[in-house]
């Protein structure tokens, strides 16, 4: 697996090794992404009815139908994936960049970002992606009632998932001490028009593999606070809030 050539500009690098790849593999990728991950499913199911939130980097929109009592505004950089996600009515899906989200600040009850931030090729851009997500959330706040009473107003919360470096038990075999910036192949197989044999085409996608504790560090750097975190199936995850 080759690593990122840091002499190349981040925008151009991600365009070639993330955005264009997902445009080309969208249909095949979507066909393999249909089962919600348990912690994400639980996070969405536990939200109060009437909650309004975001799915940033929604892919094919597999999480939009998890809880029929909430409304999700979904977005993805891939136009082809957004077309697929748009089938999940009544939710809305739009094309948008994680670094330039087109949403009003401090307005949403929740956000999810599942396997997205690790596609940004520098720490500065990964932190900025988290900043952009946190800025959409209603901040936590305390309101005074009378001379001695304070009431906590719960703000929005974001669930963020990233690939872990510590995957020793997986088929990839990565672990502590390995390279964190890697290219991961996506293999598409198809029948040859000439002889009917199966052909394979490989698309390499950029990933930053997060070491233990790194996601929390990026959330704090982005101005957030981690309220819960953990590890699930080769991923680190965290629930973050925006302090008032």
Features:
alpha/beta; 244 residues; disordered N terminus; 7-stranded mixed sheet; 11 strands; two-stranded antiparallel ribbon
Structure summary:
This protein has 244 residues and is of the alpha/beta class. The chain has helices at 10-31, 38-45, 79-85, 123-135, 214-221, and strands at residues 52-56, 71-76, 92-95, 110-114, 141-145, 149-153, 157-163, 181-191, 198-208, 225-232, 235-241.
Describe this structure in words.
The structure is a single chain. The protein has helices at residues 10-31, 38-45, 79-85, 123-135, 214-221; strands spanning 52-56, 71-76, 92-95, 110-114, 141-145, 149-153, 157-163, 181-191, 198-208, 225-232, 235-241. Mean pLDDT is 90; it is low at 1-7. A hairpin with a 3-residue loop joins strand 5 and strand 6 (149-153). It starts with 9 loop residues before the first helix and ends with a strand. Helix 1 runs parallel beside helix 3. The chain has 5 helices and 11 strands; from the N terminus they run H-H-E-E-H-E-E-H-E-E-E-E-E-H-E-E. With 244 residues, it is an alpha/beta fold. The strands form 3 sheets. A 7-stranded mixed sheet has the order 3-2-1-4-7-11-10, sandwiched between helices. A two-stranded antiparallel sheet has the order 5-6. 24% of the residues lie in helices and 30% in strands.
